[in-house]
Amino acid sequence: MPVATEHPSLVTLDLSRSSSPPSCSAGLADAPWEHDVKSGYGPGASAADPIPLASPRQGTLPLEYRRASAAELDLRIRAARHTLGSRVVLLGHFYQRDEIVQYADFVGDSFQLAQVALTKPAAEAIVFCGVHFMAETADILTRPDQAVILPNLAAGCSMADMADIDTVQDCWEQLSELWGDTPGLDGRAPVLPVTYMNSAADLKAFCGERMGVVCTSSNADQVLRWALERGERVLFFPDQHLGRNTGKRLGIPHEEMVVWHPDQPLGGNSPEALMRAKLILWHGFCSVHKRFTVDQIRLARHRHPGVRVLVHPECTMDVVDAADEAGSTDYIRKAVAAAAQPTTFAIGTEINLVQRLAKEHSQHTIFCLDSIVCPCSTMYRIHPSYLAWVLESLVDGRIVNRISVPEAIAAPARLALERMLALAPKPAVQ
Ligand code: 13P
Ligand code: SF4
After folding, report:
1. Which atom of ligand 1 lies closest to the CA of 93?
2. From 49, 96, 215, 287, mutation site for ligand 2 pocket: most ligand atoms within 8 A of C-beta
3. Which residue of 202, 327, 328, 393 has the fewest C-beta atoms within 10 A of its own C-beta?
4. pLDDT for 429 beyond 90
5. Is pLDDT above 50 for 14?
């Protein structure tokens, strides 16, 4: 079982230095609370993605936290953590800025952090420095009286927002009309739903109620194999790229993978194409990973002969095919750590993780495939000012920004998560 790393790390995504590479949005130099009053995901890779009207908004952060200097925030966060002691566990995703990661008790990928949340029954509160679906997952897996807190409610995920329960239900009805609900002679369901961890709790519940399951990028092969033993086909949402890359690794031919466009009848497919399909891929994507291209890989190989190119499986299939290896954030971290000789790595994943790896492994040359700095817009929304606010509120006996999934949704979502957790995690290196 992979265990999340238990140490702080210290690199800053400093966009103010004149030597910094160009960034994709001028707004990245702003404090995140300046974006809490605006609609949209904020600066970064998802800035141009449409944001659903119902997406959670962050209320006004009290002035004292907006005004506090980095040094003052550091003192206050450390003091609050000291007072709270083991009553609070602080989890940090690999994509968080280093000013946050340094305070985390556990740093990991989405699968590892879900596992860690399960192992902390004594903590009164889990402060989840990540994005909304991760905090929801922690709430589903933890005791009802444990509070899961997301320091900034605007930290959603543009990819997760590309599938919602109404459109997925509509898709399911159309598919059920084609195939019915009766299992075939081999006992397999006509179609089984699989949702990526990056999805809302009600979609995990949807899967739980239909013999389906959740996967993450670290166990997608295993989960998809499991699902195809139980279903003739899989409806995979919301990330088409993770689905396609995994399907290809499992040997599913290209013509047996179709894309479901939620705004078109039958998802834009003919009944024949759907009948032939093994994998129906929801038309979702991650705007961070969509930035990586085959041309960037060619350039890296041209400039750095012998470079090892590692990318996340949320990248498009042509990028994954052109890379040397593809794997989850933890896979990438471990692959770098395992390299015995000084190596040049070009990495296609979120910039905070790439910069941290470069800092931690100075024996290697490590750079991001994309020369333009463009972090995840929503991970960026978590900043020490919000962390100080949620922690000091806890010290004062107030829980702010609690993420609470109603039990009617949590119970079936838990089923889908438990099916995933029951499968042993795949070894870290592909
Ligand atoms: P991991 O599952 O690798 O942590 O990735 C989560 C994510 O949001 C990637 O974009
Ligand atoms: Fe979502 Fe992409 Fe950000 Fe991950 S990196 S949280 S998938 S937008």
Report:
1. 4
2. 287
3. 393
4. no
5. no
Dihedral (CA of 136, 138, 141, 144) sign: negative
| Residue with CA closest to ligand 2 atom 7 | 286
Residues 273 and 186 placed together within one structural domain of the fold:
yes
Mutation to probe ligand 1, out of 312, 333, 353 (largest number of atoms < 8 A from CB):
312
Q: How far apart are CA 366 and CA 83, in angstroms?
A: 38
383 and 358 in a single domain? The answer is no
In a domain, 245, yes or no: yes
Give the residue with greater pLDDT, 112 vs 20.
Answer: 112
Instruction: Classify residue 411 as exposed, middle or buried by CB count within 10 Å of its CB (0-12, 13-18, 19+).
Output: middle
The contacts of residue 392 (CB under 8 Å, 6+ apart) are 76, 80
Residue 421 counted as domain residue: no
The pLDDT tens digits of the residues spanning 239-288 come to 999 999 999 999 999 999 999 999 999 999 999 999 999 999 999 999 99
Q: Read out DSSP for 53-109?
A: TTS----PPPHHHHH--HHHHHHHHHHHHHHHGGGEEEEEETTS-HHHHTT-SEEE-
Q: What angle do CA 53, 242, 186 make, to 5 degrees?
A: 110
Look at 262 and 5; give whichever has higher pLDDT.
Answer: 262
- 144 and 191 in a common domain: no
My answer on whether 31 and 153 are in the same domain is yes
Whether 358 is covered by a domain: the verdict is: yes
220-240 pLDDT, tens digit per residue, is 999 999 999 999 999 999 999
Do 309 and 399 lie in a common domain? Answer: no
CATH number of the domain encompassing residue 260:
3.40.50.10800
Kindly state if the Cβ of 136 falls inside 6 Å of ligand 2: no
Please tell me the total count of domains within the chain.
Answer: 3
- Calculate how far, in angstroms, residue 312's C-alpha sits from the geometric centre of ligand 2: 11
Give the residue numbers spanning the domain of 115. 26-157+378-410
Model confidence at 363: pLDDT above 50: yes
Q: Closest ligand 2 atom to the C-alpha of 130?
A: 6
- Look at residue 425 and tell me if it is in a domain: no
Q: Are residues 204 and 250 in the same domain?
A: yes
Domain closes at, from 256, 286, 316: 286
Atom of ligand 2 nearest to the CA of 158: 8
Q: Phi/psi of residue 107, each to 5°?
A: -120, 135
Centroid of ligand 2 to alpha carbon of 359 (angstroms): 22
To test the pocket of ligand 1, the residue of 314, 379, 380 to mutate (highest count of ligand atoms within 8 Å of its CB) is 314
Q: Same domain for 149 and 177?
A: no
Q: Do 89 and 100 have their domain in common?
A: yes
